[in-house]
Design brief:
By secondary structure, this protein is an alpha+beta fold. It has 3 domains: about 170 residues; about 70 residues, Signal transduction histidine kinase, dimerisation/phosphotransfer (DHp) domain (Helix Hairpins); about 140 residues, Histidine kinase-like ATPase, C-terminal domain (Heat Shock Protein 90, 2-Layer Sandwich). It contains 9 helices and 12 strands. The strands form 3 sheets. Strands 2-1-5-4-3 form a 5-stranded antiparallel beta sheet, sandwiched between helices. The two termini are about 70 Å apart.
Length: about 475
């Protein structure tokens, strides 16, 4: 009992997967960007506040060092007036406040510049903590959130009395600044969300455009059957999808060729084998008891069976010509190959065989198939000549090709037959009626030549003989040679 492995994978369409991967990547990138920006804003806020406080404290220190009223140019000796004059020229940012603090009796008097979310000048306890702090910088809790401050002690000018000093205090409400940063982050999140929606639409359209050729391939594959292999995929561009379409079309070409070869084999076999089968059956049905008659019937049936065997072998050879292992090329000496063929064809019939040319050099080809093709050409020449007629064999190597040919002085071929003599079961009109054969010989020669990426060439005129040869391209392994 066999078990079938379950089909793995999901039913999610490729278009959805592409869009999901693109959106997932964008979500990851945008999330990382938002988090990094948030972290930078958070850490940058501390630096900005510290630098701003230091800058404001430095500006007041410089102003106090001059101690002149900007509007009148008169010296200022009173800390309260100094603080008031400095505050008039300040324009605090949002969530920033400047304070001028002076002590009047047991109370602290505060001059304020800015519109903070919490009035620190009215919080005497908070002011005293700030004034009493031994450090020039600090942070205090307020109902509006943490308040980070810096202070500069303003003393009376020397020789102007012993009045109490004052303090310039500047600071920021961190919660308000953080809210601004959060608004920036919220805006980034909103823009990212809108971007994701737009990206989803674009990804859907782009994925559809990318997968359109694949859908076409899928549709074509679904419509292709053994009876219709002519459909092809249009190829546009030079990208991977175009390469896939080209490979798919090439596969269809191979399939169509294979199915055509199969149909041709079946059609040819059924057509050519029907006659010998009919002859054998007819003789067997009327065969009597006479020994002489039975022997004659057996002889006739054996001849027909032999002919059937030759037809089947030729058809199988033509079918095998479509396979990649049809040829087994190897380096071959053209002179030795030609000499071997010459020795073999002389046994085909009592003709005057002449070796008229002998190519010299080494070529890469299948010696058995080439020998089979040339011997077949010689056999055809024997069938179209009479005893004692001259048949010439030759070979040559040059101009990037190797040629082997057979020439005779027989009946020749009429022009109308030159286009069809290499078709299966084709017989020339000048062929003698008593010659046997199924008409597959030249088709086999053509298949062998084309298997070597070569061609078959014919030169013939009625009554002047025929020259038929194969011309095969030579590869880099061929050495220089010539005609002997």
């Amino acid at each position: 009992m066999t078990t079938t492995d379950p089909v793995r994978g999901t039913r999610i369409p490729a278009r959805v997967k592409i869009m999901a991967w693109m959106l997932g990547l964008m979500v990851l990138v945008l999330t990382t960007v938002v988090l990094v920006v948030w972290q930078l804003l958070a850490s940058g806020m501390d630096d900005r506040v510290a630098r701003a406080i230091e800058q404001e404290a430095g500006e007041f220190g410089n102003f106090a060092g001059v101690a002149k009223d900007p509007s009148t140019g008169q010296p200022i000796s009173d800390p309260h007036q100094l603080l008031e004059a400095h505050l008039r020229a300040q324009y605090p940012d949002a969530f920033e406040v400047h304070l001028g603090i002076t002590e009047t009796g047991d109370r602290l008097r505060a001059l304020r510049q800015g519109e903070p979310p919490y009035d620190i000048g009215a919080d005497d306890a908070l002011l005293r903590r700030i004034v009493a702090s031994p450090t020039p910088y600090g942070e205090a809790d307020t109902p509006a959130g943490p308040f980070r401050w810096g202070k500069v002690h303003a003393l009376p000018r020397e020789g102007t009395g012993d009045g109490a000093g004052g303090w310039f205090v500047t600071g920021y409400f961190l919660t308000g600044l953080g809210a601004q940063d959060r608004q920036t982050i919220d805006l980034m999140v909103l823009v990212s969300a809108v971007g994701l929606v737009v990206a989803a639409v674009v990804a859907w359209l782009v994925a559809g455009e990318i997968l359109a050729p694949l859908r076409m391939v899928r549709s074509a594959a679904a419509q292709i059957g053994e009876e219709d292999l002519r459909r092809r995929i249009p190829v546009h561009g030079r990208d991977d999808i175009a390469a896939l379409a080209e490979q798919f079309n090439a596969m269809l070409d191979r399939l169509e060729q294979a199915f055509r070869a199969q149909r041709e084999f079946i059609d040819d076999a059924s057509h050519e084998l029907r006659t010998p089968i009919t002859i054998v059956r007819g003789h067997l049905e009327v065969m009597g008891d006479d020994p002489v008659e039975r022997a004659e019937v057996v002889r006739l049936c054996t001849d027909e069976l032999d002919r059937m065997s030759r037809i089947v072998e030729d058809l199988l050879l033509l079918a095998k010509a479509q396979r990649p292992d049809f040829l087994r090329p190897e380096p071959v000496s053209l002179a030795e190959l030609t000499s071997d063929i010459d020795a073999k064809v002389r046994a085909l019939g009592p003709r005057r065989w002449v070796l008229e040319a002998l190519g010299e050099g080494t070529v890469r080809l299948d010696p058995q198939r080439v020998t089979q093709a040339v011997v077949q050409l010689a056999q055809n020449a024997v069938q179209h000549t009479s005893a004692g007629d001259e048949i010439r064999l030759g070979s040559a190597l040059g101009d990037g090709a190797v040629s082997l040919w057979i020439s005779d002085d027989g009946h020749g071929i009429v022009p109308a037959d030159l286009e069809r003599i290499f078709e299966r079961f084709a017989r020339g009109s000048s062929r003698p009626a008593d010659r046997g054969g199924a008409g597959l010989g030249l088709a086999i020669v053509k298949a062998i030549a084309e298997g070597h990426r070569g061609t078959v060439k014919v030169l013939s005129s009625p009554g002047k003989g025929t020259t038929v040869g194969i011309e095969l391209p030579t590869g880099p392994s061929a050495v220089e040679g010539g005609v002997g």
